[in-house]
């Protein structure tokens, strides 16, 4: 998997059949940073808040949730 070099927040939004899908992407280097990013960027009006984070050069920490 390619390493994310950017440190700034990247946001992408698409709308499909009146549904809004919002993707927020930012480089983190620790589980603590990942959990803080998730907590800070929760969308309170969203039906689902999904996430994934992969940390480490060998991808030794991988967590995901599809909120389902």
TrEMBL record:
Source taxon at top rank: Bacteria
Domain (Impact N-terminal): residue spans on this chain: 17-68
Protein name stated in the entry: Impact N-terminal domain-containing protein
